[in-house]
Design a protein that fits this description.
Blueprint: H1 2-13, H2 15-50, H3 56-84, H4 90-127, H5 135-158, H6 162-169, H7 173-179, H8 181-196, E1 204-207, E2 212-219, E3 223-228, E4 233-237, H9 240-243, E5 247-248, H10 250-255, E6 258-266, H11 276-283, H12 288-301, H13 311-325, E7 336-339, E8 347-355, H14 360-378, H15 391-408
Helix pairs in contact: 2-3, 3-4, 4-5, 5-6
Length: about 400
């Protein structure tokens, strides 16, 4: 016992040995606190208080929070151990307190950032992508938290009040604004884009200026990521969605109708008043389509307002009825078959309606069926579809002229 007491007296009297042993004791206590926090305390809290599910996502979140808390616990333990152990040099105690404070600030900052990420994931899981992305706001929060942490660390290391550090930043505010000008612009742009809800995850956007057309996969503070339809990835600065022109096609999907607006040219010389000869030429033809055309013409010709009607007028009314009877055309939206201003290529006839098939394949199929039907039925109304002469047409014309010359000779 005397030897043990004399050894303790010698250790206590030797400041260097006493300080080293004290540091080892504090580090050992911090390690034990980390083990307790990581493997015992948090499992009890997670099981009996948080009642977390056991799926992989929740387990990953628990591990992330557990690691952060397990890093904070030893720092607090070392700090209070330095207060409990008497006889340590004042300079060593101040250095330990400063180091603990800096490490504590860093770990708390990382913990808060982890909680913000978990909040973002939980929001996206609960509300879905269509409710909008809060990733930009989360990044703004991280910047604010990190800035506060930097100020607190500087104040701790310099042993000054954080208010003094903040007040001194006013002198270099212009420099900071110059350095972080893109971040500030992106911050304003992200707030405007997110608050106005003009772009959401999963939206189909098109920006012709930079040749982008695809689905929004990520909305961050500085950039918005788009997966193009050719499976390439494009990142567009958020501020471009304020300064550049773009189209968001998503409201079209949500409305339930996708617009069909296309025209073709009719040979103006083929437009005539509809007469009995044209009707009689149809009577010699058979088929369901021809019967529908004959019934439509006879019905329209019986009306007083349809006297002296042209074959083009009957054709437009027939196509209009055809569109109204299609199940994939929205009846509560505009359905128009109209003429446009004549051109050197003929008289444009435009179809303006909305297809209930909003997805690309079905929409293109509907549009193709409509115009194929129009091209095929135009001949029954003695209307010519205009197209520019091709090499084959010129060759046929030359052959006819050559044959005519041979016959004359």
């Amino acid at each position: 016992m005397q030897s043990l007491a004399s050894m303790l007296d010698w250790i206590y009297s030797n400041k260097i040995v006493f300080s080293l042993l004290s540091i080892v004791l504090m580090l050992l206590s911090g390690f034990i606190a980390s083990i307790i926090c990581k493997y015992f305390l948090l499992s009890i809290v997670r099981q009996f208080i948080l009642h977390r599910n056991t799926n992989s996502d929740d387990q990953k979140k628990d591990i992330r929070i557990t690691e952060r808390l397990s890093h904070i616990a030893p720092v607090i333990t070392v700090y209070f151990m330095s207060l409990w152990i008497q006889g340590l040099p004042v300079g060593l105690v101040e250095a330990i307190h400063t180091i603990c404070a800096v490490i504590l600030i860093i770990n708390i900052t990382i913990l808060i950032n982890e909680m913000l990420d978990i909040t973002k994931d939980a929001y996206a899981k609960k509300h879905g992508a269509k409710s909008g992305s809060i990733k930009g706001y989360i990044q703004i929060g991280k910047i604010i938290i990190s800035s506060i942490a930097v100020i607190l660390i500087i104040a701790t290391l310099s042993n000054k009040s954080p208010i003094i550090i903040i007040s001194s930043l006013g002198a270099i505010a212009a420099v900071l604004m110059l350095v972080f000008q893109h971040t500030l612009i992106s911050l304003v742009a992200n707030i405007q884009v997110s608050s106005s809800n003009v772009i959401r995850l999963g939206d189909w956007i098109e920006m012709p200026v930079v040749n982008i057309s695809g689905e929004v996969t990520d909305i961050a503070l500085h950039t918005i990521t788009v997966r193009n339809w050719d499976n390439t990835i494009s990142q567009v600065p958020t501020k471009n969605f304020i300064t550049e022109t773009y189209t968001n096609w998503q409201p079209m999907f949500e409305s339930g109708g996708r617009r069909i607006k296309r025209s073709f040219f009719v040979d103006q010389s083929s437009i005539i008043f509809f007469n009995d000869d044209l009707l009689n030429s149809l009577k010699s033809c058979d088929g369901e389509i021809v019967n529908n055309i004959k019934n439509h013409i006879e019905t329209k010709m019986a009306l007083p307002q349809f006297k002296n009607i042209t074959n083009l007028g009957l054709y437009r009314s027939f196509i209009l009825d055809y569109l109204k009877n299609r199940e994939d055309i929205c009846k509560d939206m505009y359905i128009v078959v109209r003429q446009l201003s004549p051109t050197s290529e003929g008289l444009p006839i435009e179809i303006y309606c909305f297809s209930s098939n909003v997805f690309w394949n079905e929409y293109e199929e509907t549009q193709s069926e409509i115009f194929e039907f129009m091209y095929a039925t135009a001949t029954f109304f003695k209307l010519g579809i205009y197209q520019k002469p091709s090499g084959t047409d010129i060759q046929k014309s030359s052959s006819i002229q050559a044959n005519s010359s041979v016959d004359l000779n």
